[in-house]
Amino acid sequence: MKRLLVLLVLIAAAWGWHSYNDGWMPQSGDGVSTGQQGAGRGGRRARFGGGEGPIPVIATAARRGDVPVTADAVGTIQALNTVTVRTQVDGRLLEIAFKDGQDVKKGDILAKVDPATYQAQYDQAMAKKAQDEAQLANARADLERYAKLAQTDYGSRQQADTQRATVAQLEAQVRADQGAIDNAKAILDYTTVRAPIDGRLGIRQVDQGNIVRASDTNGLVVITQLRPIAMIFNLPQQQLRAVSAAVARGPVEVDALDSDGTTIIDKGVVEVIDNVVDQTTGTIKVKARFPNERLQLWPGQFVNVRVFVDVLKNVVVAPTAAIQRGPNGAYVFAVDEDETVRQVAVTVGQQTETTAVITAGVEPPVKLVTTGFARLTDKAKVRVSTPEEAAQPPATAPGRRGTREPGQGQGRRRDQQGGGDASGAGSAAPAPEAPAGTDGTRQNRQRRNGAAPSEGAPPGGQGSPAGGSGAQRPQAQP
To answer: Of 75, 121, 158, 352, which residue is least crowded by CB atoms under 10 Å?
Structure first.
């Protein structure tokens, strides 16, 4: 059994070798030269690593510049002020003077409550004051008379003192009446509901005609101040020292970013740093303020935030794509003047999605490889391109598909028709002579179709039923 298996393996190996050398490769009689066969094998060897040229790469020069030191976080937008508008008196809602989502100013009328009861109370207070003022005037006149009589001993001094006390009581009563009037006037004014702040109204909570009370929890509507607007975000406690130092130096800029992390929605400043670190999360709460002139920030919205803590002056800056990581740390491929690369170990400081600060290892204006690391090794030969050159579309070579040159299509149709026989095609000019390898190729195509080429067959279509349609079909032998 083992001998049989060994024999089968040997037969399969021999058949594979035969197929590789003879069965799959055209013979010399088929019009393919030995040099072309060698070129095909050489192409396979080149495809597996032999005879490769310079490796194409894209390189960008390192530079010196100022790099901002930032702290990124996710913040929550909060309204600077939020007010639930409630009526301060009870009564029937006569009028709603606003629309949902309307922008209002402080003092704008929002609603009106039935003022009839409160107007009556105000009128009563006014009447009571008038009554007391009349009594006060009479008491003052009596006091003046009693005082004169007491001076001439025609009246008692006790009577004059009693009248003086009566005048003082009536004066106090008049002042009390004025207070009651002010109170009734304030309550009467409460029947007109006004906006307490500038902001945008939400959806109203009650409809016209309902009985509203001062104790209602929902209120009439909610006003939210959107300009300016606040943001609350948390930073790790490790960054507290840097942020506090930046706030002490002056206003700290804050950018509100879109979900892509690059589009700036609005710019603001840090307003306050909380006075305690959250022991549960180890973070510090920071509040920033944004002008929000275009109303792109909305209360309750989650946005990315970037705080500019400091600026690194005149440092070496390189693209982040050039930084590679290995067992020994970070390194880059630097391009020398002879278009070879060398692997250089570097020390990376701050790194973002696009740029990296290199504190040691390279100096400008060295070029650093950013694309093409797959086959790159130390001392490898490269062909360098800039990002601008790589972004340009490649030029189309002349004569390829899609760029027909003048007269090219007519010549191809003339070759396909095989017009070389004056009697078959009626052409005045003979067909151009085929290249050296064309006959062998036509013979190979005919051999694959199962027909042998005829000796001395004319290149035209003489004797063909189609009258000049190509190679002549061989006739059957009796």
So the answer is: 158
Per DSSP, 258 falls in state: -
Tokens of 113: 């409550």
Instruction: Look up residue 29 and give its two tokens.
Output: 């009689």
Over pLDDT 70: what percentage of the chain?
74
Q: Which of 390, 276, 376 is nearest to 326 (CA)?
A: 376
pLDDT digits (tens, 9 = 90+) for 389-405: 877 776 554 444 444 44
- Identity of the residue numbered 117: T
Residue with tokens 């690194």: 312
472 Cβ contact partners less than 8 Å away, ≥ 6 residues apart: 454, 457, 458, 461, 462, 463, 464
**Distance of alpha carbon 348 from alpha carbon 343, whole angstroms:** 15
Omega within 30 of 0 (cis) for the link into 115: no
What are the start-end ranges of the H helices in 191-264?
A: 240-249
> Which amino acid does the sequence have at 346?
V
- Which H/E stretch holds residue 438? helix 436-448
Omega prior to 365 cis, within 30 of 0: yes
With a threshold of 0.90, does the pTM exceed it? no
Cα separation, 268 vs 288, in Å, equals 7
Tokens at 212, concatenated:
């509203």
> Mapping DSSP to helix (H, G, I), strand (E, B) and coil, where does residue 477 land?
coil
Query: How many C-beta atoms lie closer than 10 Å to residue 395's C-beta?
Result: 6
Element (H, E) at 307: strand 302-319
| pLDDT tens string 172-231 | 999 999 999 999 999 999 999 999 999 999 999 999 999 999 999 999 999 999 999 999
Nearest to 114 by CA among 88, 95, 98: 95
Other CB atoms closer than 10 Å to residue 115's CB: what's the count? Answer: 18
End-to-end CA distance of the chain: 53
What structural domains and CATH numbers belong to the chain?
A: 55-65+314-391 (2.40.420.20), 82-112+193-224 (2.40.50.100), 115-190 (1.10.287), 225-312 (2.40.30.170)
Do the beta carbons of residue 210 and residue 93 sit within 8 Å? yes
